[in-house]
Amino acid sequence: MQETELIQSILNGQTADFSQLVKTYETAVFRIVMGFVHQKEDAEDITQEVFVKAFQSLDRFAGRSSFSTWLFRIAIHTSLNELKRRKRRTLWSMAADLLQLPSSNKDPEQAFAQKTEQELVRKAIDTLPKKQRMAFILSRYEELPQRDVAQIMEISEGAVEQLLLRARDNLKNFLQRP
């Protein structure tokens, strides 16, 4: 069954068919979400939330773009909303998170020095402006061509290219800082 037929079937009451869409897109949605939140458990929860939102609003899918484009937009917006919610945490809880050290006898300098390169890259990605981060995650994590990224972000391919160039430069500058 083609995607459009599958969607129509779901809208006609065959809600169990939605599981086929989930199976098709759950890995891609998870990778996109993971690019924003960086924690597996959170990404799993948000991925589930994305599919719940998609199911609940499937009747609003107009078909002007592909289903994947529509779904990836939901994933991006849900991830960004989660990041906004996290930023609203109190300063004290954020400070407590930052000050948590391993239970070993290492001093804070040693603990900081042992942070992985992956964590540094994640932090660098988190510093990117929203549009650069979206373009970078869709391009790198999901390996989408610029044409698809442009469609998802509702901008031109040239704008995507510029965002990716700026993102690369910003990441390079962040990672080269002493």
Walk me through the structure:
It is a single chain. It contains ten helices and no strands. 75% of the residues lie in helices and 0% in strands. It has helices at residues 3-11, 18-37, 40-56, 67-87, 91-99, 108-113, 117-127, 130-141, 146-153, 157-176. The model is unreliable at 94-99 (pLDDT under 50).
State the distance separating the first and last CA atoms.
Answer: 55 Å
Largest sheet: none
Shape: globular
CATH topology of the largest domain: Rna Polymerase Sigma Factor, Chain: A
Query: Which superfamily, in CATH terms, is the homologous superfamily of the largest domain?
Result: RNA polymerase sigma factor, region 2, helix turn helix motif
Query: What amount of the residues lies in strands?
Result: under 5%
Mean pLDDT across all residues, rounded?
A: 84
Helix content: over 70%
Quick overview of this protein structure:
With 178 residues, this protein is mostly helical. 75% of the residues lie in helices and 0% in strands. It has two domains: 89 residues, Rna Polymerase Sigma Factor, Chain: A (Orthogonal Bundle), CATH 1.10.1740.10; 64 residues, Orthogonal Bundle (Arc Repressor Mutant, subunit A), CATH 1.10.10.10.
Supply database-style keywords:
178 residues; mainly alpha; Rna Polymerase Sigma Factor, Chain: A; Arc Repressor Mutant, subunit A; 2 domains; 10 helices; 75% helix
